[in-house]
């Protein structure tokens, strides 16, 4: 059924998801903060900064006005980076229709509080939205989605009806959507895989080889599952799209900004040079800082994240980080948490 949908955030992922929803016949409004970009989307049907060379559907309209964007919308999708999430939710809150479903597609934690985005939504929106919140995640680079390449994602909500309604709005022949009830697991998986992708970029830049990459993905998954489970996730989520699926794509794809950031650091660039060159959000950097605190709070061992933290924020050489990972104390592959899968 045709729905009225607003997508808040006109970067790569917001624009790509708005395209999927428009292709599905919904009436979609894309909100962004820059007049020049919004005029470009409305007049030229392009978003050259974030999705160069892509023609967007002509039916997709954009605006810089939050009140206009949110008027009469049945689904509200937030896709702004985690660092601006709370502020945009606060501004939007007053204009959201009481019956709307709320979904976000953000892969990060709030820097100041280490909260998940759904926790921020619960704090900032009126209480009646609490049972209407969902997250969309999984292996899905915007550059491939706008080219209609086959993609699978997961929509997680504690409310099965909400998950199924949203599945129905997003699913099509190139964008297959699965439901899941584990919001914590899906949100934590989406955020943490960026740390492992940064490490994979470093490893590739140091020519550590394919064995090392496989080790990072596999032991990275163990690390993600360990913290996720301690935070309340269901371990089985990590053998799904928001776990192993997203780890594989982000650690191996040329499209990954996190992988590219790690690679550039291995080539001697400073973190600020990397972030400046990228011109797009690299969520894994702040997530590494946050996860360092979360690992201590939950008393969870996270050796890859810990080494990456030292490389990014304490000037440790990537080569020494690899050496320290390889020389860790001997351990068994299967610990209690992972054994419960
Ligand atoms: N790109 C992808 O393939 C995927 C991304 N994601 C996740 O989606 C989220 C958004 O990322 P993505 O779209 O890729 O990011 P981009 O870097 O492509 O775009 C960032 C967008 O956020 C806007 N923005 C930046 N700062 C602010 C602010 N302070 N207030 C309001 N808007 C702001 C930018 O606006 P402006 O242009 O005006 O600066 C731009 O529209 C991230 O959490 C990411 O991990 C998830 C899956 C896939
Ligand atoms: O989440 C993504 C793919 O699933 C995008 O990853 P990057 O932010 O590293 O580009």
UniProtKB/TrEMBL annotation:
GO CC terms: cytosol
Pfam families with a match to the protein in the record: NAD_Gly3P_dh_C, NAD_Gly3P_dh_N
Binding site for NAD(+): 9-14, 142, 257
Binding site residues for NADPH: 12-13, 33-34, 50, 107, 142, 257, 281, 283
Top-level taxon in the UniProt lineage: Bacteria
Reaction equations catalysed: sn-glycerol 3-phosphate + NAD(+) = dihydroxyacetone phosphate + NADH + H(+); sn-glycerol 3-phosphate + NADP(+) = dihydroxyacetone phosphate + NADPH + H(+)
Domain Glycerol-3-phosphate dehydrogenase NAD-dependent N-terminal: 4-162
Binding sites annotated in the UniProt record for substrate: 107, 257-258
Keywords: Cytoplasm, Lipid biosynthesis, Lipid metabolism, NAD, NADP, Nucleotide-binding, Oxidoreductase, Phospholipid biosynthesis, Phospholipid metabolism
Pathway named in the protein's UniProt entry: Membrane lipid metabolism; glycerophospholipid metabolism
Biological process, per Gene Ontology: carbohydrate metabolic process; glycerol-3-phosphate biosynthetic process; glycerol-3-phosphate catabolic process; glycerophospholipid metabolic process; phospholipid biosynthetic process
E.C. numbers: 1.1.1.94
Active-site residues (renumbered): 193 (proton acceptor)
InterPro entries (alphabetical): 6-PGluconate_DH-like_C_sf (IPR008927), 6PGD_dom2 (IPR013328), G3P_DH_NAD-dep (IPR006168), G3P_DH_NAD-dep_C (IPR006109), G3P_DH_NAD-dep_N (IPR011128), NAD(P)-bd_dom_sf (IPR036291)
UniProt: sn-glycerol 3-phosphate binding residues: 107, 138, 140, 193, 246, 256-258
Protein's name according to its UniProt entry: Glycerol-3-phosphate dehydrogenase [NAD(P)+]
């Amino acid at each position: 059924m045709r729905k009225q949908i607003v997508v808040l955030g006109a970067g790569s992922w917001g624009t790509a998801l708005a395209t999927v929803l428009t292709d599905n016949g919904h009436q979609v409004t894309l909100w962004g903060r820059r007049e020049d970009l919004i005029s470009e989307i409305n007049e030229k049907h392009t978003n050259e900064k974030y999705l160069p060379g892509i023609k967007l559907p002509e039916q997709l309209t954009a605006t810089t006005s939050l009140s206009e964007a949110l008027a009469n919308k049945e689904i509200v999708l937030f896709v702004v980076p985690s660092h601006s999430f709370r502020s945009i939710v606060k501004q939007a809150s007053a204009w959201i229709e009481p019956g709307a479903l709320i979904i976000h597609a953000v892969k990060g934690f709030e820097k100041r509080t280490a909260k998940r985005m759904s926790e921020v939504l619960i704090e900032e929106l009126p209480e009646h939205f609490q049972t209407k919140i969902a997250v969309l995640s999984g292996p899905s680079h915007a550059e491939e989605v706008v080219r209609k390449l086959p993609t699978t994602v997961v929509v997680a909500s504690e409310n099965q009806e909400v998950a199924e309604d949203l599945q129905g709005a997003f699913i099509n022949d190139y964008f297959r959507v699965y439901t899941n009830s584990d919001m914590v697991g899906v949100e934590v998986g989406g955020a943490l895989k960026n740390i492992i992708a940064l490490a994979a970029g470093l490893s590739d830049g140091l020519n550590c080889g394919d064995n090392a990459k496989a080790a990072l993905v596999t032991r990275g998954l163990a690390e993600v599952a360990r913290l996720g489970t301690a935070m309340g996730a269901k371990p089985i989520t990590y053998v799904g799209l928001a776990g192993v699926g997203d780890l594989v794509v982000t650690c191996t794809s040329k499209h990954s900004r996190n992988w590219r950031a790690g690679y550039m650091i291995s080539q001697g660039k400073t973190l600020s040079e990397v972030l400046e060159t990228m011109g797009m959000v690299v969520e894994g950097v702040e997530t590494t800082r946050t996860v360092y605190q979360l690992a201590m709070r939950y008393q969870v061992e996270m050796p890859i994240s810990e080494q990456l933290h030292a490389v990014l924020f304490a000037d440790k050489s990537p080569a020494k980080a690899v050496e320290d990972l390889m020389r860790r104390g001997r351990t068994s592959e299967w610990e209690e948490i992972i054994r419960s899968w």
